[in-house]
Amino acid sequence: DAGVIQSPRHEVTEMGQEVTLRCKPISGHNSLFWYRQTMMRGLELLIYFNNNVPIDDSGMPEDRFSAKMPNASFSTLKIQPSEPRDSAVYFCASSSMGNSPLHFGNGTRLTVT
Amino acid sequence: QKEVEQNSGPLSVPEGAIASLNCTYSDRGSQSFFWYRQYSGKSPELIMSIYSNGDKEDGRFTAQLNKASQYVSLLIRDSQPSDSATYLCAVLMVRGSYIPTFGRGTSLIVHP
Questions:
Q1: Which residues of B touch A (CB under 8 A)?
Q2: Cα distance between residue A24 and residue A37, in whole Å
Q3: Residue in A55, A56, A99 nearest the CB of B31
Q4: pLDDT confidence of residue B2
């Protein structure tokens, strides 16, 4: 099992640019989660999907953020336009549905200058 | 009140001692509880799951759950310097479906 795969590992971009983060969940997992981690706020849930359907996006900070899951093996988180305050580590995690634990990818460290 | 609360630490213990990490949660209906370890610059790694009141042991780790008090803890016996990390408590809260909510984490330092 390859685990949850995220790309890129690091992203440095200038303010105003579009950023796309990618995630491949563990095969067979039905739920996918996007988290953002900062020193100030810890791990914040941005959005999660069950069976490719967005269930709760109340954690998405604003309209600049969007997420898609076109199929069971791929999801994207897009920020357009990016701002310096978006700088953080973004984690994707997946789980089997129900009360199963999350398995995290290695994260994407985003720096917006 | 924060949904999942942990003391941020750092908690400093000598090598070989027992480290005790605590977590409280606000949702009385929560049924599933997890402890994750996160090394600096790395992703959270699952170390324990607990679903029923009482203790659950796995090697040097023991998770304790008390749903009446809305309290979950993690004990690490014979602490090693390699245990130095941030420990995150996660609670699956029911909001129509299961929402995994994390505490801010407790930083543990095990000194030789």
A1: 31-32, 34, 42-46, 49, 51, 88, 90, 92, 95-105
A2: 19
A3: A99
A4: 67
